[in-house]
TrEMBL record:
The lineage of its organism: Eukaryota, Viridiplantae, Streptophyta, Embryophyta, Tracheophyta. This is ESCRT-II complex subunit VPS25. Belongs to the MIP18 family. Belongs to the VPS25 family. The keyword Protein transport applies. The keyword Transport applies. Keywords: Protein transport, Transport. One of its GO terms (biological process) is macroautophagy. GO terms for molecular function: protein homodimerization activity; structural molecule activity. GO terms for cellular component: ESCRT II complex.
Length: 314
């Protein structure tokens, strides 16, 4: 039996007629079915997610019998996979094809099993940790295509199984996992991760070269999350009672969470009681939609906010 590395090729791979599209309908249907199974099996065992129609894909030719699939045959076999939901064209010109040897729902189920098996129901991890972390080694998730992973994660998010949040870059995108429901403590950890100094975000103080976490302006204990009612309250403590930048700090927190959290969340930003001379006025401004909108129309203020968020968005 012929092999490609350790992969055993089926018997039909050595018969020249199978490399030419058969004119008889019944014969062609059998031929297409064999090629579909072969492509899926080979891609699964070799962890191949993208097949280029015009690229040197090992299955498209057999040097032993000196046969190669025509462009028409390649497109026919891949299109057959697409019609069954086992592949998708990645471009309008049909040059590259995404192979779904597991359907998106099946990948989603594997992710949930991975979360349960590793006790991560209440955990927070990055997207990259799922596909390249220590826990995923030896599983089908290890090394999986990022496009497929994100599709599966968004499928789970839509079903309320987990929450995705943005990070500094694509590598830092985070996942807050849940199996039955997103628990408040896990959600608080997620929000804290968005605000404090970690790979996800590092908001800089407007006046000092330190993060808000380093200055103790923000702590995880000062974050309240009611996921059931989609509510988040963040309480921050200015460094001094007469801090002139308290409103800017609060605005930075609001803007960051507006950009990062799912839109269903209502965000409440407040100064810790008794920590600022104009506490009531600051709280009113930070939680008045019209005032916030007006502030964000001020170019100088927006520049200041963006500078504070630059560690996250630069």
């Amino acid at each position: 039996m012929q092999t490609l590395g350790e992969f055993k090729l089926p018997h039909f791979f050595n018969y020249p007629p199978y490399f030419t599209l058969q004119p008889v309908r019944e014969t062609r249907e059998k031929q297409i079915q064999l090629w579909k199974e072969l492509i899926l099996d080979y891609c699964r065992t070799q962890k191949i997610f993208v097949v280029g129609l015009d690229e040197d894909f090992p299955l498209f030719s057999n040097p032993v019998i000196e046969r190669s699939l025509s462009h028409e045959a390649r497109e026919a076999f891949l299109s057959a996979l697409i019609s069954e939901g086992r592949a998708e064209w990645l471009d309008k010109s049909h040059k590259k094809c995404l192979i779904l040897w597991h359907r998106i729902q099946d990948w989603a189920d594997l992710i949930i099993s991975f979360v349960k098996d590793n006790g991560l129901e209440d955990g927070v991890m990055t997207v990259e940790e799922i596909r390249s972390g220590v826990e995923s080694r030896g599983t089908e998730l290890y090394g999986m295509d990022r496009t497929i992973l994100m599709r599966a994660l968004k499928h789970l998010e839509h079903k309320g199984k987990l929450a995705l949040f943005k990070g500094t870059s694509a590598d830092d995108e985070g996942v807050c996992c849940e199996v039955s429901r997103l628990k408040s403590r896990a959600a608080a950890t997620m929000v804290s991760g968005l605000i404090n100094a970690n790979p996800v975000v590092d908001i800089k103080d407007p006046e000092h070269p330190y993060s808000l976490e380093e200055l103790k302006v923000i702590t995880e204990d000062a974050i309240e999350v009611d996921d059931k009612h989609s509510y988040v309250r963040v309480t921050f403590t200015p460094t001094v009672e007469h801090c002139s930048m308290a409103t800017v700090i609060g605005l930075c927190l609001r803007v960051k969470l507006m950009r990062s959290l799912p839109p269903r969340y209502k965000v409440d930003i407040r100064v810790a009681p008794g920590t600022h001379a104009t506490e009531a006025a600051v709280n009113k401004q930070l939680n008045d939609k019209e005032r916030v909108a007006a502030a964000l129309e001020n170019p100088n203020l927006v520049d200041m906010v963006d500078e504070c968020l630059a560690p996250s968005y630069g």
